[in-house]
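Shipment paperwork, digital attachment
Item: protein structure file
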Amino acid sequence: MAPKADPARRVVADNRKARFHYEITDTVEAGIALTGTEVKSLRGGKATIGEAYAGPSGDEFFLFNAYIPEYLEANRFNHETKRPRRLLLHRRQINKFLGATQREGYTVIPLKIYFNERGRAKVELGLGRGKKLHDKRETAKERDWQRDKARLMRDKG
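Attachment content:
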């Protein structure tokens, strides 16, 4: 059985395909600069980060192409749905990501958006390299074997 999720960490958006398409080597928690209507919309749980990625713009990191829908109860002061959002990282983390993306061919992918125990919106970023087709097939084969093995053990025991 899967372990229980941390009740203080409420996941709003999950990039489930990221671990299939990328080989994630390192993960980092980052804050995200949001407007008020974005936070209210996130609490509704309708965000999508399937096509999102993080990248540098100047000397800061931004989250690009993340979809946070408009807050329905807001009036004319609503936000843009796919605007770049600034990520709150330490300088050492930014330099690490910059070095990995520019020299080594890595990509920074958002894995989850969640609210921590203090109610702050956070993004879990993964530093990953794209998998080749044969690696994806191997991952799918391993996952199927684990599922079959668990089914056999359950039926036998």
